[in-house]
Design a protein that fits this description.
This protein is of the alpha+beta class. The chain contains 2 helices and 3 strands; from the N terminus they run ααβββ.
Length: about 140
C-alpha cells in the first residue's frame, strides 16, 4: 500500500466526539448570553422609569408655586398622592406627593413636615409599585 491510501477524512466516531465537545462548551456560553439579554431588559425598564420620573419632575417644577401649594393643602398629608398623579389603572403610574416643609427645624422635633415654613414645599414623584422615585424641596420665588 502506498501512503496515498492512508486516512483521508474523519470517522463517524470522531465527528460525534467533536459535536459532544462543542455542545459541552457552548452550553455555558449560551447561558451567559441569556443573562446579558435579561440584564438588558432590566436596564431598559430602569432607564424608562428614570426618564419618566425626570420628565414629570421637570413638568411639576414649571408649575406655578401657588398651584403646587394648593395641591399640597388639598392632599392634607405627605403620604397622600395629589391631583398631579396619573389616573389609576396602568401599572407603574406616576404618583406625585406634595407637602409643606420645615426647612429650619425651628420646633426641634426633626420632623420635616411639622412646624412648616411658609413658601417651602417638599415634592416627590415615584413610580407606583417600585422603589424608584425623585424628590426635591422647592421655595417660592426661585
Amino acid at each position: 500500500m502506498s501512503a496515498r491510501h492512508g486516512q483521508r477524512g474523519l470517522t463517524l466516531v470522531e465527528v460525534l466526539v467533536a459535536m459532544v465537545l462543542l455542545a459541552l462548551v457552548l452550553l455555558p456560553a449560551m447561558q451567559a448570553l441569556q443573562t446579558s439579554v435579561t440584564g438588558a431588559d432590566v436596564h431598559d425598564e430602569l432607564a424608562n422609569n428614570h426618564f419618566r420620573l425626570t420628565s414629570r419632575m421637570e413638568e411639576l417644577l414649571a408649575e406655578p408655586f401657588a398651584d403646587l401649594e394648593a395641591a399640597a393643602v388639598a392632599a392634607g398629608a405627605p403620604s397622600a398622592a395629589t391631583s398631579y398623579s396619573e389616573p389609576s389603572g396602568p401599572p407603574g403610574r406616576l404618583l406625585v406627593y406634595l407637602a409643606a416643609y420645615d426647612g429650619d427645624n425651628a420646633d426641634a422635633d426633626d420632623d420635616p413636615f411639622t412646624g412648616t415654613d411658609p413658601g417651602i414645599l417638599w415634592l416627590r414623584v415615584e413610580a407606583e409599585g417600585t422603589v424608584h422615585g425623585l424628590e426635591t424641596v422647592i421655595a417660592q420665588g426661585y
